[in-house]
Amino acid sequence: MSATRLTELTAAQAVAAMQRGETDATELFEAYRAAAQADELNAYLWVADGAPAAPPPSGAPLAGVPLAVKDLFCTQGVPSQAGSKIIEGYRPPYTATVVAGLADAGAPLLGKTNQDEFAMGSSNENSAYGPVLNPWDRTRVPGGSSGGSAAAVAAGCAPWALGTDTGGSIRQPAALCGIVGLKPTYGTVSRYGMIAFASSLDQAGPLTRDVTDAALLLRHMVGHDARDSTSVGFPGEIATPSAERLDGIRLGVPEELTGEGIEPGVLDAFNATLELAQELGATVQTCRLPHAPHALAAYYVLAPAEASSNLARYDGVRYGARVSGDGGLPEMYTRTRSEGFGAEVKRRIMLGTYSLSSGYYDAYYGSAQRVRTKIAEDFHAAFGTFDFVVTPTAPSVAFELGSKTEDPFAMYLNDYCTVPMSLAGTPAISIPNGLSEGLPTGLQIAGPAFSENRILDAALALERAIGFDGSSGRTRSREAGRRAHHQDAGPEAPRSYD
Ligand code: GLN
Question: 60 C-alpha vs ligand 1 centroid, how far in Å?
Answer without folding.
Answer: 34
